[in-house]
């Protein structure tokens, strides 16, 4: 460990030094000791700084030339944290194909696969279960003998603008069962799609574990008129000096290569650098073809719809899946009442006197944009923030409403974010007093899809800890989690933001926040069940339904 020396900029003193002099010298020596201790801890992977040690967010900017550091592999966990992490990873473990290389011809072909409705001519009522059997075949027309394909399925009635998702069960032999709860009367159609064949999933798994650098980031450093830009990431290959920007409060790791002439402290901004190319072999690329095996429909071998009669009585069985459904283009949760805020005055009345914090990525920025556009007296205050980046703030002075958006900390694939505005959600939550007029909405998922799941678990663990502390000191604070959503996929997007990556992260998030006093807006089902094409940023009709669900937690109907 090299010695770090900080030269104190103290004025020359006579032999009769004042108490201030000795205090300043003691403080400098304390800082040196802290830096030495922190550098050892963060680089060697021993215990992280905890909330007992630091009460606000700072950055460590010391130079180190140690071997590559990957925080998600070297973090020190308590026994409980380790057990939880192992349980979460086990819960999302995906079936693997047989050992050995699978040729493209033996991979799943959605065009040669089919599904059939079990008992298509049966008598169905609202509330009944509908079972569908899916049979997978390869490009030679032969039945698949193993599972692991990633499917999406929904039922829908186009004329009614109704839709709901299904629950998929992998039988691990090339067969899949899909279970739907019939939730409205009339003709109900079944749609099944292959998102990725099992062979493609294995490629995605390999990329997630071996190539977390396939999205890279950069930071700008500036002093006077001179500036430099270097690459940044959670992990960086060794051999070059790095700046350690690990967050002292949360222990979230982040590193940039050190500029040649400038200090680490001269960093002024963060930005997405780009996407790595040439990630696949020629054979692997065949598993990612838009018109062949990415989000392709699987057709029915017989009838693809059933007639559903109204239910004879109002009783409804246990609610497991789905969480809700569309009817006449309006989302209807199955576990609670929802109010559809079709008039802007209703939204104003609901939010009057509230402070609303929105934390996350561009999908929750859509909520900020929607509310600012729809609520007449809610006016955006110009903070001079970069477009689409933030932070943003809107104010309604007449009704005492404050609406704020801030993006989450790195990794964040935004264009330029000022270093001073690069903050972690957990730290922001620690700075909120909370109370009955405080509303917090969080989403965090999309920008973590290229990293091993341990990186995401660490981030959620920190956020969860801060949420629990916030609710402990201010129990009436309302906290809402917006889940992930599906999106349009092509060959390139699949390698970075596949729905399969999002589905895995979303599954982890739901488990980690279960049993805590938070509410969920199920953006996943709301995007998958809708008739509109999948989009990373859902269209306004879907966002409006998300906002209705959000506001229904803020202003619940009195029933």
UniProtKB/TrEMBL annotation:
Organism superkingdom: Eukaryota
InterPro entries from the UniProt entry: Ig-like_fold, Ig_E-set, NXPE4_C, NXPH/NXPE
Residue stretches making up the NXPE C-terminal domain: 331-555
One Pfam family it belongs to: NXPE4_C
Family per record: Belongs to the NXPE family.
Protein name per UniProt: Neurexophilin and PC-esterase domain family member 3
Organism this protein belongs to: Buteo japonicus
């Amino acid at each position: 460990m090299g010695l770090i020396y900080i030269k104190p900029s103290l004025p020359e003193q006579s032999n009769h030094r004042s108490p201030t002099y000795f205090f300043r010298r003691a403080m400098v020596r304390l800082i040196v000791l802290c830096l030495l201790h922190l550098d050892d801890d963060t680089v060697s992977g021993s215990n992280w700084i905890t909330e007992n040690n630091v009460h606000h967010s700072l950055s460590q900017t010391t130079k180190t030339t140690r071997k590559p550091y990957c925080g998600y592999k070297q973090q020190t966990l308590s026994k409980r944290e380790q057990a939880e992490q192992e349980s979460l990873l086990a819960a999302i473990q995906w079936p693997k194909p047989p050992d050995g290389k699978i040729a493209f011809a033996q991979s799943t072909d959605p065009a040669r696969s089919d599904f059939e409705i079990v008992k298509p001519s049966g008598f169905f009522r609202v509330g009944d279960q509908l079972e569908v059997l899916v049979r997978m075949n390869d490009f030679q027309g032969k039945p698949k003998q193993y599972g692991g394909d990633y499917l999406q399925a929904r039922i829908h009635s186009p004329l009614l603008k109704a839709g709901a998702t299904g629950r998929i069960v992998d039988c691990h032999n090339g067969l899949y069962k899909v279970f739907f709860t019939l939730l409205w009367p009339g003709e109900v159609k079944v749609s099944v799609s292959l998102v990725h064949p099992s062979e493609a999933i294995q490629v995605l798994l390999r990329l997630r574990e071996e190539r977390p650098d396939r999205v890279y980031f950069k930071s700008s450093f500036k002093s006077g008129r001179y500036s430099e830009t270097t690459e940044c990431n959670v992990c960086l290959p060794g051999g070059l000096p790095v700046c350690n920007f690990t967050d002292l409060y949360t222990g979230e790791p982040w590193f940039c290569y050190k500029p040649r002439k400038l200090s680490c402290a001269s960093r002024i901004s963060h930005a997405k650098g780009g996407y790595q190319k040439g990630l696949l072999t020629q054979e692997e690329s065949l598993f990612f073809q838009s018109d062949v095996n990415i989000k392709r429909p699987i057709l029915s071998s017989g009838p693809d719809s059933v007639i559903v009669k109204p239910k004879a009585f109002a009783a409804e069985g246990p609610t497991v899946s789905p969480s809700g459904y569309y009817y006449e283009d309006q989302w209807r949760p199955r576990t609670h009442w929802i109010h559809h805020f079709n008039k802007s005055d209703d939204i104003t009345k609901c939010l009057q006197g509230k402070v609303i914090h929105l934390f996350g990525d561009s999908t929750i920025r859509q909520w900020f944009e929607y509310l600012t556009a729809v609520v007449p007296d809610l006016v955006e205050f110009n903070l001079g923030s970069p477009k689409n980046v933030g932070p943003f703030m809107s104010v309604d002075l007449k009704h005492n409403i404050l609406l704020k958006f801030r993006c989450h900390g790195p990794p964040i694939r935004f264009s330029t974010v000022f270093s001073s505005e690069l903050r972690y959600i957990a730290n922001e939550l620690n700075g909120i007093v909370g109370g009955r007029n405080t509303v917090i909405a969080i989403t965090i998922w999309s920008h973590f899809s290229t990293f091993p799941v341990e990186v995401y678990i660490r981030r959620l663990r920190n956020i969860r800890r801060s949420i629990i502390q916030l609710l402990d000191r201010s129990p009436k604070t309302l906290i809402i989690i917006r889940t992930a959503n599906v999106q349009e996929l092509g060959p390139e997007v699949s390698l970075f933001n596949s729905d399969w990556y999002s589905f895995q992260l979303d599954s982890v998030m739901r488990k980690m926040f279960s049993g805590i006093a938070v509410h969920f807006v199920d953006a996943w089902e709301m995007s998958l069940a809708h008739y509109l094409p999948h989009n990373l940023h859902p269209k306004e009709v879907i966002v409006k339904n998300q906002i209705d669900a959000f506001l229904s937690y803020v202003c619940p109907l009195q029933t």
